[in-house]
């Protein structure tokens, strides 16, 4: 890997583009060759995972709204598919609809380091552009692997959360790079597209604070849509604010660490295999990633606590990130409010631990149902659960070795008679270092479980077969990556939506 040291430069420095981070990202992307077998296999896993969580979210309101907006933008060109319909629309709008479906349930892949990310959010815009431009499955695979490489590198090197900047700022840059790789664009074009995308997709973290709304699902789709539009403009010769990262009024100086900002971003050398996708991991449970181990730990503790009315308090000792993002350290009273939105509850470690401790399981709908959240005994238990930051868990969260990195914590349960029950879990069971690491059969099983009753069995089989053969699909074959659903039922559901501008 090559380490790129990034700092703020005054305009008078006239920083050469070859020394700018946006150029280095574009160069690493356009230098991506055919992926190694293990990277390609993981990309297939990610395609399967995305489809599973998108199909099961099809009738949820945010997804239906995004789909309605997309269907108002048909195209006379080749276009791209909108999941749940037989329509083809302009690719940026297909990316908007499909990206929202993928993100809605907070149920696909993750990578955590200096910052947060869901690299699977790169796939909907890449697939849309691949369809629209007649690219093959091999082209799409190369683009996915490149996007993951850039996304993971940025998440490792530049923390956004410390400055309350939403993590989709890194997603937009990665998607622009993946699109450039997919289309085999010149480095200069991708460089301009990266800068445009970063400039237009930077937003605050208020979308994930307090009462969290449906925008949490829309935000990554918006970044993907913006990246497609930026690539289109760059292909037409348009330039961007430059240098977007290093400029004295740029991203680092005004939004992150200020004029003295200094970061190190490691990117692969020319010819070096792109393997960052192998460091990412998916979710077994529909909740924020740092809650995955919390759910598994709660399920394990059920056997030790006895009747839950005896629980006086639960304290989760965990990392800075977990405590401040989904724990009581966030200072959000909404994380303890039974009337909170689903999006808020899936970012509430106290709520999640309480329900998992009571039920011994987790479900993407039932565990968040309003009547479930308002159950009196649940509310009573929930409000006795707090989190604290433990420096050792924070250190383990930032462990340089991915195989030793920890995203869990230690639960200390105090019973009414003073008895203390403790247990800890470093990573979720489905994590690569966990008790039951996800493999291809697990992704296929997740797909079949989530789509049961929505897809006909043969439709699911056809999709899984196409995904397995992704590297060999021709341009028309990419259509098979959209599982066939009952489009009439979807249309009937959408007919009841309020009308907008389009």
Automatic annotation (TrEMBL):
GO terms for molecular function: lyase activity. Residues 21-262 form the MmgE/PrpD N-terminal domain. It comes from the Bacteria. Residues 319-342 are annotated as: Disordered. InterPro entries: MmgE/PrpD_sf, MmgE/PrpD_sf_1, MmgE/PrpD_sf_2, MmgE_PrpD, MmgE_PrpD_C, MmgE_PrpD_N. Residues 285-470 form the MmgE/PrpD C-terminal domain. Pfam families: MmgE_PrpD_C (PF19305), MmgE_PrpD_N (PF03972). Belongs to the PrpD family. This is 2-methylcitrate dehydratase. It comes from Streptomyces noursei (Streptomyces albulus).
């Amino acid at each position: 890997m090559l380490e790129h040291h990034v700092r703020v430069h005054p305009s008078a420095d006239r920083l050469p583009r070859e020394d700018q981070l946006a150029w280095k990202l574009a160069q690493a992307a356009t230098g991506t060759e055919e992926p190694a077998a293990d990277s390609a296999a993981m990309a297939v896993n990610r395609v399967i995972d995305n489809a599973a969580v998108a199909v099961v979210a099809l009738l949820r309101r945010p997804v239906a709204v995004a789909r309605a907006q997309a269907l108002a933008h048909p195209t006379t060109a080749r276009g791209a598919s909108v999941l749940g319909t037989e329509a083809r629309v302009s690719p940026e709008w297909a990316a908007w609809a499909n990206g929202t479906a993928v993100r809605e349930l907070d149920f696909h892949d993750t990578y955590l380091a200096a910052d947060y990310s869901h690299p699977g959010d790169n796939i909907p815009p890449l697939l849309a552009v691949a369809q629209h431009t007649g690219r093959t499955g091999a082209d799409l695979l190369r683009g996915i692997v490149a996007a993951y490489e850039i996304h993971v590198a940025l998440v490792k090197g530049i923390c956004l959360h410390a400055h309350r900047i939403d993590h989709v700022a890194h997603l937009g840059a990665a998607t622009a790079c993946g699109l450039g790789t997919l289309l085999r664009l010149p480095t200069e074009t991708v460089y301009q597209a990266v800068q445009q995308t970063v400039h237009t997709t930077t937003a605050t973290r208020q979308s994930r604070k307090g009462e969290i709304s449906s925008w949490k699902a829309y935000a990554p789709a918006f970044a993907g849509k913006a990246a497609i539009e930026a690539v289109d403009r760059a292909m037409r010769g348009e330039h961007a604010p430059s240098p977007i990262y290093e400029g004295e009024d740029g991203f680092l100086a005004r939004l992150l660490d200020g004029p003295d900002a200094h970061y190190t971003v490691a990117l692969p050398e020319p010819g070096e295999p792109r393997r960052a996708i192998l460091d990412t991991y998916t979710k077994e449970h529909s909740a924020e990633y740092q809650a995955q181990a919390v759910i598994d730990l709660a399920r394990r503790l059920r056997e030790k606590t006895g009747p839950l009315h005896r629980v006086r308090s639960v304290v989760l000792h965990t990392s800075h990130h977990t405590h401040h993002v989904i724990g009581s350290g966030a200072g959000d009273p909404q994380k303890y409010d039974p009337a909170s939105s689903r999006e808020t509850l899936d970012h509430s470690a106290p709520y999640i631990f309480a329900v998992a401790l009571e039920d011994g399981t987790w479900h993407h709908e039932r565990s968040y149902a309003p009547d479930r959240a308002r159950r009196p005994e649940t509310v009573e238990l929930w409000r006795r659960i707090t989190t604290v930051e433990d420096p050792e868990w924070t250190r383990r969260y930032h462990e340089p070795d991915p195989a030793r990195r920890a995203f869990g914590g230690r639960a200390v349960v105090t019973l009414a008679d003073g008895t203390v029950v403790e247990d800890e879990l470093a990573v979720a069971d489905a994590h690569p270092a966990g008790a039951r690491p996800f493999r291809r059969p697990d992704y296929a099983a997740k797909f079949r479980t989530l789509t049961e009753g929505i897809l006909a069995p043969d439709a699911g089989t056809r999709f899984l077969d196409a995904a397995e053969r992704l590297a060999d699909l021709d341009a028309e074959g990419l259509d098979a990556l959209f599982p066939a659903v009952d489009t009439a039922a979807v249309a009937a559901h959408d007919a009841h939506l309020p009308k907008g501008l389009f």
